[in-house]
Amino acid sequence: MASPVLRGGLLALLAATLFGLSTPLVQRFGLGLGPFSTAALLYAGAALVALLQRRGAQVEAPLRRSDAPRLLAMVAAGAVLGPVALAWGLQRTSGASASLLLTLEAVFTAVLAWRWYGEVLDGRVKSAVALLLAGGALLVIDQGLTGQVQLLGLLAVAVATVAWGVDNTLSRGVADRDPGQVVLVKAALGACVTTALALARGEPLPGWPAALALLAVGATGYGLSLRFYLLAQRHFGAARTGSVFAFAPFIGALGAFALGERSGSVLLLAGGALMVAGVLVHLAEDHGHAHEHEALDHEHAHTHDDGHHTHTHPVMPAGAHSHLHHHSPLRHSHPHAPDLHHRHSH
Fold it and tell me: Most buried residue among 43, 57, 195, 273 by CB atoms closer than 10 A?
């Protein structure tokens, strides 16, 4: 019964690693390019890798027409505003401090998941959010002391974290759909919109080396990362996935250091330490109580070894499969997170 939490945590960590490493690489290969051109190449790479990730309807539930408004909002927030603000900000602040500030994405995701979906935020989670906010404030102060341009760059990165927090929370509504299909639609639309904006603004065309590098970064840091993020949300909710994903900035800061950046100060180190503490406090959460499952009919990928999918088949499928299925009412007690089957109120 604890396997969904473990599986979700590992998937979120994998998503965080891929995205975290992308931040200093975007700063390096996007040098001299416009923010819309950079975002277009990143999401074009994500769309290309997503073409290879789609699975049949017998394995994953496909997208529906009713998902269109949510997907369009995800594109606007996560595939246009977020990467454009990040690309603009990375050209005006250090990669290490920008990477660390991205931890605030977890704060916005947790708060929005609480407000929109009623996900539980107990005292431990609230303490973690407070630590993350305090760390982000120290980073803003640190960059503000270095000059106005640095501060503007960091504020642009903060805008990106808000946009991605909205995107993360919206994506919970399609977490039970085929992640390859979700990534493909979001990335393709995002690439089209940002390409049109780049052309309208007359941004300089990238050279082949930079273009290929950004396509590769987009394929891994945005395409594969988003796939793993959606799968993690499926297992333990938007707020918890966002919290584990908060490790991404620290991976990004290490990547910036490995690429030769040596900027840093006492305030930056103190802010990073507070953010690490916030992530660790959040991951230490242990939630379990007696709860009821109401009767439910839905469609998503599942197996029959998780204690919740007890329906039968004439011939039992091997491994994960998807179809419309019924859940009978059930009351039991075990440690759980707000995954697809534990969205009860408290």
Answer: 43
Q: In whole angstroms, give the CA distance from residue 206 to residue 203.
A: 9
Between CA 26 and CA 122 the distance in angstroms is 36
Tokens 């001299």 sit on residue? 32
Report the C-alpha dihedral over residues 47, 224, 86, 278, rounded to 10 degrees. Answer: 160
Biggest CA–CA distance in the chain, Å, is 69
Q: What is the pLDDT of residue 26?
A: 87
DSSP code of 61? B
Residues in CB range of 8: below 8 A, 6 or more apart: 231, 232, 233, 234, 235, 236, 240, 241, 244, 337, 339
Length of the chain: 346
Strand 321-327 vs strand 330-335: parallel, antiparallel, or unpaired? unpaired
- Distance (Å, rounded) from C-alpha 311 to C-alpha 255? 47
Query: For the chain, which ranges sit under pLDDT 50?
Result: 1-2, 148
